[in-house]
Amino acid sequence: MTDDDPGRRPLSRDRVLRAAVALADEHGLDAVSMRRLGQGLGVDPMSLYKHVANKDDLLDGMVDLVVGSVEAGDTAVGDAVEGDGGGWKGALRGRVMAARRAMLAHGWAKRVLEAREGASPAVMRHYDAVAGILRAGGFTPDLTHHALHVLGSRLLGFSQELFDDSAALAEGPEVLELHARRMAGQFPHLAEMMLGISHDEATVVGSGCDDQFEFTFAIDLLLDGLERLRDAAPADGH
Amino acid sequence: MTDDDPGRRPLSRDRVLRAAVALADEHGLDAVSMRRLGQGLGVDPMSLYKHVANKDDLLDGMVDLVVGSVEAGDTAVGDAVEGDGGGWKGALRGRVMAARRAMLAHGWAKRVLEAREGASPAVMRHYDAVAGILRAGGFTPDLTHHALHVLGSRLLGFSQELFDDSAALAEGPEVLELHARRMAGQFPHLAEMMLGISHDEATVVGSGCDDQFEFTFAIDLLLDGLERLRDAAPADGH
DNA sequence: ACCTGAACACCGTTCAAGT
DNA sequence: ACCTGAACACCGTTCAAGT
């Protein structure tokens, strides 16, 4: 009977989705079950089906909410890139980095987006905005299309990790080096890479795989490559 | 009591994994449950835990089997690329395309690999082979490392699909065009792209998104970009 | 010591019974 | 007509009881 008795406010799709996002943020995606979600809202699990078609629809709605938040505080501010005066590259980077921030804030969203095959409305709007940036940057519709495919999941701010080395990273560079030496026999080239990294950059923070660096490295390589294609064949994208 | 009574052959990890792969190939990944797998092998579900630590270990073993098959019939044959006499690009394309064939043959593998965070032994061997190709191609360890990250999941032959348009594709180009016109209001740039595509290529097969084309397009753009970086700074990959 | 299957603690969703 | 909760058909895994 208190003021914030959750049973008082009427249920709505938005309230269900926000509760699900909060639940996933706090306890992980696996904690998001119809039963537990209903319990958190002080509602019979079955009542959720009034606002959500099924579990998949719930997950779709959750990512839609997260991706939709990208549009609010997006590229307008600038996200000033070091060496350019805005333009399509800066705008694209801004959009993509905003999406990345949203993804990093909601770690579970990446996993849901990978599992989904159809794009939600907010994702479609995001893609459309990116396409618009490219068109304004002088890309043909055809090359714009290929560009979207090339950028792929990086449009949403994440990339496929090769493998998770965060456990080894957390233990410090000497553990990483030990790890590398141990696998030198089986994976000589990977070991060489790892050892090279831990030698080059003596600072602790830089060793191992720096996700943020690798992400921007990839984006820049892709944008440069696309720009070259645009300039090579301005009339036809193929 | 027949000759091929599955109960006769003793269970082994390999036999369990092969049965799981066959089950996933035939009835989809969701059909792979400990209960159903045990049933298919004529064995108590709990007996599987003698050969497999848990469900995740089972899935790991399954993808390991698939990725491991890539090494058998890999780049040796040549996979001759149009305009070059082999070299690192041809070798890399060959390896990646072999992985792609394996992935296309086992549609569920992509989903499992995306969900996994740690790389299985076969995947590690694959990465190491790719790293070896790059090193032999004159890349520094550092640039080799970044190259692996840039190529990402495409090393294993797949890329993140933006959205699945196979349903619309199957209905033919006129349906695709209708689709595009309907969404022109909300997603003008995406609609323009789709309409441009269906106009350019009148043949039915070519319209919509050609996965194979987009994949090779991306690979070529990435390899060209990496080559340029290699040649720009031969001594230091950064 | 090994194997097995009943049991536990969950799922998403159906559907009939209650209001 | 609407809402609800018991019930269904599954899960992965534990664990104690049987051999």
What does this structure look like?
Two copies of one chain form a homodimer. The first copy, chain A, is mainly α and 238 residues long. Chain A has three domains: 6-52, Homeodomain-like (Arc Repressor Mutant, subunit A, Orthogonal Bundle); 71-159, no CATH class; 166-198, no CATH class. Chain A has helices spanning 13-27, 34-40, 55-72, 87-105, 107-115, 121-136, 141-151, 166-170, 173-182, 188-200, 211-232. The radius of gyration of chain A is 22 Å and the shape is flat. Residues 1-7, 76-85 and 201-207 of chain A have low confidence and may be disordered. Chains A and B meet through helix 5, helix 6, helix 7, helix 10 and helix 11 of A and helix 5, helix 6, helix 7, helix 10 and helix 11 of B. The structure holds a DNA duplex (19 and 19 nucleotides).
